[in-house]
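Page 47, continued from p. 46.
Same chain as before, 311 aa.
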Amino acid sequence: MRVYMGSMRTSGLAACALTIGNFDGVHLGHQNMLARLRAEADARGLPTALLTFEPHPREFFCHDDPPSRLSTLRDKLDFLAERQLVDEVFVYRFNPAFARMSAQDFVDRVLVGALNTRYLLIGDDFQFGAKRQGDFALLSSCPAFVTEAMPSVLVAGERASSTLVRERLAAGDLSAAARLLGRPYQLSGRVMHGKKLGRTLGFPTANIHLPHRRPALEGVFVVEVDTPGATFGGVASFGKNPTVDTGDDYKLEVHLFDFAGELYGQRLRVRFLKKLRDEARYDTLDALVAQIERDAASARSYLTSLQREQA
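Result:
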C-alpha cells in the first residue's frame, strides 16, 4: 500500500478507482465499501485509492470541543495495509483553504486534476465542498468518471457507522462495538515515562501516549496487549486517574500480567475485550490498591474463560 501525505499532486498519478471519507475505525461498513471498490476497480483494470483527511473535519470545525476519535491515523493506515484493503491512500491536510474550496473546485482540482479519478464510490449520505454543497447529483454530472453510491451496511439490523461505534464504546458495550468493527476495538501508542506510581503499589503500568484529546471510551478494562516480543493479557485504566491526578488529560495505563522487563519507547497495541467498571476516586491509596487487586483478579478470570472458549 502506498501512502501519499500532504497537499494535492497535479501530475504523474495513474488513473484510479477512488472512495472518499474519514474511515475512522475502519468498521465493517468501510470494509464492505473497500471490497466493492476492489471489485469495480478490478473490472476496469484500475488500482484502488482512498482519499482521507487529517485532522478529521469535525475536529477542524469544533476545535474547542472535538469529537472522540476511534483510531489514530497510524492505526488506520496500519489496518488498511495489514488487510490489503486498498492500494493507495491520499491523506490531505484539512485546513482553512481546503475547507473553503467549493464543491465544483473539489471535483475539478482534486478528483480530476490531482487524483485522475475514473471511478468513484461514495457513501449514500456523502456531501462535500464549502458549506457541504456538493452531492451525488454534482458528482454524477462529471463526465471524467463514473460515480456510484454504496448503500448502508447493516450489522445485526443496525447501520454500521463510526458514530454508532462511538456510542457503543461510550456505553461500555465492547461486544457490540466489536461486531460493528469486525474485531475487538484497539489502539496503539508508544510507552512513555510516567510518575511510576504503579510499581510502588505493586502494579507497574505501561503509560501509552495517544495524540487525541478525547478517547472513545473510559474506565477499567480487560485487555490483550501486543508487545514487540509477545502478546500478554492485562488490565487497563483509561481516564483521568482522579485518585492521584487533578488534571484533565486522559491517560491509558496498562498492567501486563506475567511480564518482566522495560517497555519505554516501544509501541504497544492494546485490544479492549471487556469493561470492568467506570473510573472512581478513592480516599486512600490502600483503597485504590484493593480495587486494583479486584480488577486484576476479574481480568485474569475473564481471560482464562476466554482461552477455554477458544480452545
